Amino acid sequence: MQLHINQNRKKMREIGVIFDLDGVIVDTAKYHYLAWKKLADKFGFEFTLEHNELLKGVSRKASLEILLEIGKVIISDAEKEKILVEKNTNYLALINDMTAEEILPGVLDLLSFLEKNNIKYALGSASKNAPFILKKIGLYNKFSAIVDGNHVSKAKPDPEVFLIAANRLQVKPHSCIVFEDAIAGIEAANAADMISIGVGDGDVLKNANYTVNSLTELEISYMEKLLSEVNNHEARPRGIR
Ligand code: BG6
Ligand code: MG
User: What is the pLDDT of residue 212?
Assistant: First the structure.
C-alpha cells in the first residue's frame, strides 16, 4: 500500500484514525492467556483458550471478575487486589522480550499510508501496559496521542477512551475511524459515532461497520473508499446512540 490517495485531500475534512493495541497492532492475547492461566492453575481450575476470548478488550479488573466466575472462586476485595498485581507481574515477564518482530502484518504499511496522506493517528487501548508495549516494539513515538487504561474511568464498551483520543487528535468523533478486534471495542467505537473496522472474524464482530481478517487486506482502493465514507459521515444528532 504505497500510493497516495487519489482524491483531492484539500476537499476532505480532517480525519483521525484510532487503533486498539492488543489484537490489532500486536497479538498479546496469548500472553494475557498464559498470565491468567497461571493464576487459574493455582486456584485449581481449567482456563481454556475459549475462556480467554471472553477477556479480549476487557479491562484487567473486569477480566479478573470473569476469571473468578469461570472458576467459581470467591475471594475478598483485598485478595483481588493482590491477584491483579500478581497477574500483571506474570504478564510483564512475558511481554518483556517483545520486539518489533511482533507487530502484526499490515500495521506498518497502514501507518506509513496514513503518514504519507497526513492523517493523524492515535492509540485507544484498555491496557495500562500500552506505553510499555509500544516502546518495546518501537512505535511509541509514532502516535500523535496515546490513550490507555490509565486515562479512563469507564472501560470499553463505554466510548470514553476513543472520545479522549479524538479530542487529543483535535478531530471530531464522527470523522474518526477505529480499528478494533474486540466486541466491546466495536461497541465503544459505534457509541462514539465513529466508523468501526473490525479486525478478525466478521461473524463475531458483526456490529462493526466493516470487517477485515487482517490489516493486510487494506489495499489502496479500500482505504480510498473508507476515507471518502468518513468524509461523508454526518454527525449523529445529539442524544442518539
Ligand atoms: C486489552 C486486552 O487491550 O487490555 C485485555 O484485550 C486486557 O485482554 C486489557 O485485559 C487490560 O490490559 P492490561 O495490560 O492493563 O492488563
Ligand atoms: Mg484488542
Answer: 96
Together in a domain, 116 and 196: yes
Q: Which residues contact 104 (CB under 8 A, 6 or more apart)?
A: 24, 25, 26, 27, 214, 215
86 and 171 share one domain: no
Q: How far apart are CA 193 and CA 206, in angstroms?
A: 16
C-alpha cell at 201: 472474524
Ligand sitting nearest the alpha carbon of 148: 1
Pocket test for ligand 1, best of 31, 54, 95, 127 (most atoms within 8 A of CB): 127
Name the grid cell of 200. Answer: 478478525
Q: Is the pTM of this model over 0.90?
A: yes
Model confidence band, residue 3 (pLDDT cutoffs 50, 70, 90): very low
Domain boundary among 95, 111, 126: 95
pLDDT grade, residue 234 (50/70/90)? Answer: confident
**Domain harbouring 84, CATH code:** 1.10.150.240
| Domain count for the chain | 2
How far is ligand 1, taken at its centre, from the CA of residue 222, in Å?
A: 29
